[in-house]
Amino acid sequence: MTRAAVLGKPIGHSLSPVLHRAAYAAMGLDGWTYEAYECDETGLWGFLESLDEEWAGLSLTMPLKRTALKLVDTVSDLAVAVGGANTVVVRDGRRHGDNTDVHGIVAALAEAGLGAPGSALVLGGGATAASALAALAELGLTKAGLAVRNPERAAESVSVGERFGLDLKVGSLDRLPDMLDADLVLSTLPGIAADPFAGQLAASGAALFDVVYAPWPTACASAVEEAGGRVVGGFPMLLHQAVRQVELMTGRDDVPVEAMRAAGEAELRRRAAMPVSPLSSRD
User: Active-site residue 143, yes or no?
Assistant: First the structure.
């Protein structure tokens, strides 16, 4: 048996088990398992220490991505620069930290025909925002906007931007209209936190990438679509970052993207039909 899992807190909402299991099934990896474990920052070290030769790797979601950097044996340059590892690959008894969120964002935008924005604004200052800034740099931007609740506490995000060669203009979410002169807005705000800005985003004419994938559509996505704007949801990002994780954990490049997409979309439809909606979520 070869084991893999997703860790985080809360974890019940995670779509990762559905995506990874669909990949294993389509790839003929009958001996592979993928589970979800609730784990906070204080429990991560113990979990990592328990990994034996059966383990191929871990997916990490909130709040573990930054903590993991200090606990793995080696870490990729990208994860260091972004300031977060959402992936741990186990090889020869050693744990290697990596970041596939950046790939997920780049691939999701390219798939939607938004892979070459002339200008961009990121909402939020957490780990996903850092990956969004790295993705913008990979797409060729040299400057971007960053809107956060408290600009005085944005030093870490500014440092990430600098490491990727981005000239950042930092402003407050309270004055968002002053910054909405971008072609693309990337909202990394969790759950309903972005809802108060839906009207402003719709009026701006910018395309929207919203990392939330459930419940969908978000208020912002609906408003932008109704105004005729282009919208990309969080599911394509989650899908493509999971594809890269499967590649890293299995060592194979024949990962079945469409089988994973179909499984994920079917699960989201199932959840949407439930009497009680699932927790607003991001992996």
Answer: no
Within 13 A of 25's CA, how many CA atoms are on the CB side? 11
- Per-residue buried b or exposed e for 211-238, using 16+ beta carbons within 10 Å of the residue's own CB: bbbbbbebbbbebbeeeebebbbbbbbb
List the strands of the sheet with 184-187, edge to edge.
Answer: 167-172, 143-148, 120-123, 184-187, 207-210, 231-232
Compute and round to an integer the Cα radius of gyration of the chain: 18
The CA distance from 64 to 34, in Å, is 18
Catalytic residue among 9, 65, 70, 143: 65
How far is 101 from 90, CA to CA, in rounded Å?
A: 19
Check: pTM over 0.90? Answer yes or no.
yes
pLDDT, tens only, 170-212: 999 999 999 999 999 999 998 899 999 999 999 999 999 999 9
The pLDDT of residue 142: 97
Residue 263 one-letter amino acid: A
Nearest to 86 by CA among 154, 150, 164, 6: 6
Q: Which residue(s) pair with 97 in the sheet?
A: 75, 88
Among the residues of 28-112, which ranges form H helices? 41-49, 65-68, 77-82, 101-111
Phi-psi map region of 110: left, alpha, beta (phi>0 left; psi -120 to 50 alpha): alpha
Are the C-beta atoms of residues 143 and 80 closer than 8 Å to each other? Answer: no
Calpha distance 230→208 (Å, rounded)? 6
pLDDT digits (tens, 9 = 90+) for 19-28: 999 999 999 9
| pLDDT mean across residues, the chain | 95
**What is the Cα–Cα distance from 135 to 231, expressed in whole angstroms?**
17
Residue 130 burial (CB < 10 Å; 0-12/13-18/19+)? buried
**DSSP characters over 203-268:** HHT-EEEE---BSSS-HHHHHHHHTT--EE-HHHHHHHHHHHHHHHHH--S---HHHHHHHHHHHH
Per the CB < 8 A criterion, the answer to whether 101 and 128 are in contact is: yes
